[in-house]
Design a protein that fits this description.
The protein is α+β, with helices and mostly antiparallel strands and 165 residues long. It has two helices and seven strands; from the N terminus they run E-E-E-E-E-E-E-H-H. It starts with 5 loop residues before the first strand and ends in a 7-residue tail after the last helix.
Length: 165
Amino acid sequence: MARMKRGVGYCENTDCEDYAKGVFLLNHGDTFYCPRCRQLGKVEKERGFYTGNSDIFKEVRVEYNFDPVHGIYREIAIVRDESLWGRNNVYTLQSPLIKTEKRALKVAEAILANLNRYRGLLSGDDIPRTTEMILSFDESFDEFSHKLKQLSKEWEASGLRETGR
């Protein structure tokens, strides 16, 4: 399955006007050159990981407000499902794209809902997407058809359709 790789490129040249300013990167590699000074910079990738060994997630943490000078995330937003008891998985998303607590909490809530809605579908360092599904004509007909049916069901349930004129 094709995955969107998102990140932010930062200039590390302290003499550059764009020092430590972020540039959004989509489906990027591991190298970034500052568009202003043309020197090699640093790429901070959006990534996710989890701890635990069950299919049920009780907590999602979003590390946000990335500081490119020190290379750390300055804040963490945590959303928990207190209705679950016992030991359950904890998912962590590190995203240089998220700057505010409000956005981090929204993302954490959406991820928690999707993780428990689509149990067992997370593999490796996948980041659960809450609003996108990638359709590729390179996929098998059966997989492509399955995704279209799933999108159709979600669209019908969303209330975005016009009901009549």
